[in-house]
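Bumping with the actual sequence this time:
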Amino acid sequence: MTRVVLAVSVDVECDKDANWRIRRPLSCGNVRYGIRKVLAPLRAHWGLKFTMLASPEVLIDDDAMEALLELEGAELGTHLHGEFVEPDADWQAERTDQPQSAYDASTEWQKLANLTELFVQRTGRRPRSFRAGRFGYGQRTFQYLARLGYEVDSSVTPWWRQRFPAGENHDHWGIAPTPFLVGSREEWRDGAGRLVEIPVTIGVPGLLKLPKWLLTCGRRVPGLRRFIRKAGGPENKCIWLRPLRNTVEEMIGLCDEIAAVYGRAGLVVLNMMFHSNELMPGMSPYCASEEDLRRLMSDIEGVVRGLSIRYALQPCTLSEARGEWLRVAGMFVGKEDC
């Protein structure tokens, strides 16, 4: 039976409204509410392990940190919304819209270094996992994360295309929704690189099974994509492993196709994601009511139940998922991973 490693990664942010605008005065009530009312019960019933990726404003909130540190079996990592960390912090920002790819090299490095140091000060240990705010990583981000000692990034969104207000264009169309090494094998053998990318689980059922060379051509030549879509079937809908965004049936269907296409080594790594704001009604465009919150919990339970029936399901944190994948991939990463 195929073994499925399921990571559940949560972007942990301050309170916002239904349009993602930051609530004033700045607060993090959604973190305490979401952990205690939603995540802890799911953990107790299903044995899920959450990776909580905390933005800077959350790391300085004592009540939010207390709730995060009491969540059993969870991993705490970092999540960069640069509005809340120096240099050039903007604590009066209306929204967290600025991707780190828009920063110059010095600014991005300093913000990442300051975020990492803040994490160390608040927890007494170094973070291992990271996700860029709005998935807006830049060309230098992986290099900086490796230099700071991170082991897992989860900023890549396969098959998803996103444009930011400043003009940055992130196009991941055709990228496989599977982990990969960041850096060359030579760098890993020399000890210079330790970073593994565990992308958010996103895909287009019907297209994942197409030959890699065809998808690569489509990624490089956007004009070919409409023909590739026809080859994949009539739907071609981009599905996220994300509660409230897609149905349980759609998410299970995506997981099944990923397992069929990429599970030849007997291991599939899946990464479900959502925001802490979605764990409290009225804090996001997705969860507007108590009914939506019940559906979110039902979505998570439905996916876990479906995967448990089909596969040997293993809940993991992002760092644990990295270790499981590396053991199967047979990569050398240091004594502690052997």
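The tokens above came from a reply further down the thread. The first strand starts at residue 3 and ends at 12.
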